[in-house]
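TICKET #2291
ISSUE: user wants both folds in one file
ATTACHMENT 1:
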Amino acid sequence: MFLFVYSVLGVTIFSGIKQDGAISVHANFTNFHNAIITLFRMATGESWHELMYDCARQKSIVFECLATQDYYSMKEFGRMECGNQVLAYAYFISFMIIVSFIFLNLFIAIILESFNTSQNEEGLKIGQQTLNQFSEIWSEFDKKGKGFIKYHELEQIMNRLISEES
């Protein structure tokens, strides 16, 4: 929902900006599809500041753009609008702040869920009765009490333990 709202805002505000530098064929706000992809790219932290600066860019010696553009000039020259500094800074910085909180909380939630899962798995401990049965069956196979048995006898111990449990 959050990406949807910011995509619509991005298309509304920045769709006419001239493509130069970070605003390119691959990262722009010309339509909803490109805006969603651009915002997802920004959410990963890749070049979001460059996109912000290009959307805030004003006319200068090295950057030729139009303050406003009508349909006919857009049809003839392509998208040539200048950026809006106030809107660009507000849009991009607010997006990055909100996204960083969302991703930070998501990351923490994943860690806590993994921790909770591991705690639940550790909670499946063997009861005292099962340990007592295991000791009795073990002593039948280890008559001298050395604490060692033959490896093939372990399967027999486990089978007896399972059969007595059920």
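ATTACHMENT 2:
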Amino acid sequence: MLQNSRRIAIIATLITFIFTLSVSVQATPQSRDRGVGTSRKQTRQTPNQEQKQETADKPSSVKLVEPPRADFLSGEANVAVSGNQNPVIRLGLSPNGATIIEFPYSDRLFNIIPGNSNLVTVEESPTKATDHFIIARPGDGFASPATMANARRAPATSVIVQMQSGLVMTFLFYPVQQLSDQAHRVVITYDRNEVIAARRAAGLAVNLDSSTEGEKPRTTSMRVTSPETAPSPAAAPNVAAGDTPNNRTPAGTQSPQSSRGVADLADVDSSQPLEKQSGKGSNPARAASLALTDATKSPESFKKWSDTTHGLSLSVSPVKEVSRRSQVVVVAVRNTKNAPARIVPEQPSIYLETLDGKGRPLQIEPIRKLAMETTVTGEVIPAGSIRYYAVVYEAPIMGARQRLRVAVGQTVAADEPSTASLISR
């Protein structure tokens, strides 16, 4: 019996062990399946993580920001300058264009300093001593790819202009591709007296035209030489009624003015035979004084008057010969307004006009004045009065389609680009 009990106990222990072992074997695949499931789950998430990682590794796109376009002048522009300014003026310039820059009639060019003539050149004028303008053109290197790469953004070069008053202006030229974007005509306006007063207050030099002749320039600038000045004559003893000797204002040498922006025009009657001045008429100043005296003695000789424009009417005397190279003409100016008329300084101006086959103007050339005498006081003609100008000028050689003209303008109408032509014949 005892042996049987032991057998039964051993068998029960074996059965328990086998059952326990089977249970543990069944639990092991589930754990493996769980491990495999976790691994698969992790495997399914790996592509998303790799995609995010690749996106993070890629460099972000860079947007190119163009530099802002510069603010420069184009078309036709007017620039007003104060007396204490030395302006920097920005102009657009096309490789196929040109720019004309005009300056006030009361001032003249003294020095032109080009920055780089290979990029922008200033046209050489045979009359630059009396000109009131410059013409800028693109140079040979202006249209180069390196220059045009900075079109509308940066200036290619500069040109510095100094006037006889002392005013300094700097012009910056910006390359542009289209002609419509460039500055074609620029008009500079300022008061010369204000400039001189401001420079004197700052201790700077003024009236720079008094430089010594023959002095060699120290830079590559284009020094502008002023024309010779004729001596001012003494007042003539005889004057017309209403014109006292105090009204006689010697004017000396005056520079010619272009006809642009003047109010009244009249032809110089050069068709009549030239009359020689009596006495020593080879002196331009004396010739002007004698011609003015004769005119004021015979005001009735001025019979043909031009139509009135801006309140002024002109009449001219026959041209008289002073010498082989000079002539004199007297211009009578009548103010038909009820208010005084202030005449533009350095007026009248005489110029040579070339016409085409249909009588249309083709070219205008200023004529150099040698001396001038006038009965105008303070550049003002009183209301309803007549004043006289005697002008001695260099006699030009004229073609068949050329004629001499004289211009007189007022300060209230000097900036008009188109004026009426007043013909005295």
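RESOLUTION: both attachments delivered.
EXTRA DETAIL ON ATTACHMENT 2: The longest strand covers residues 326-335.
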